[in-house]
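Sequence and fold
=================
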Amino acid sequence: MFALLKSTPIFVHISLFMVALLYAATFTIAKEIMPQWLKAEAFVTLRILISALLFLILHTIFIRQRISNRDDLKRVFICTLFGTLFNMLLFFKGLSYTQRINGAVLMMFTPIFTAIISGFVLKEGFRLWKIIGLLIATLGGILLIGGTSLTFSHQTVWGDLMITANAILYAVYLVKVKSLMLKYNPLTVSTYTFVMGGILVLPFGFAQLMDTDFSSIPNPIWIGIAFVIIGTTFLTYLLNAWALKHASPSTVGSYIYLQPVLATLIAVLAGKEWLTYEKGIFAALIFTGVYLVNKSKTRNA
């Protein structure tokens, strides 16, 4: 299946752009679902289990590759904890305790965490233009999402801390999973992490899932649930996995900065927001920062 995608830079960036596009609507959609229709733990359990089934079916049909090396299986286990289980639980639980805008802003720090961890673990180095690019993109993202509307307080502190912890764990995942992507097919790695995650998530959310009154959930909410599971989980992890095989964790992480830009464009096209000069400037900062991060990586190569 991944043979259909060429490992040229343009296809890598297209894949990462699609991931950012799918994630752009997640904060709003997930907030509409939780906690009224699904508790955070139940939603995460449903998300992982169905995605694991989709990955398993796809892997059985197209790949059938196995991971039998003990050290690699240990690495898969770590990636499952950081990139599939705890980061999802922390994200959805945190989002239920804080505001959407807080969660979106805090996720802007994921690329910085990724760059720092990559610098120490993968020896990517801390080039000046890379650091400048990260700072510019972070500033642009925070201003575009929040501006003067940010309200961090004691009422949102636990949710904010959970979202921040999620960002750190996901950054660790991006760095740790890189070696597996280079050795195995990305679909194989994703299948193993989600199947393992499907087993590990049951103690956290199975009871809440069983207590959910699915018959009362209206069709629009079902559409939102399907979008988060198929789009924001299955497809994004699939595309991210492939991109990580051909790009650095810092490059993959930098595309998180595009999420607020795309979310704003979607809102403008839907007639929910107006495009202002300020938003255009903030978006330009983000694109400039992402360009500098990727240009720095190209120079290093």
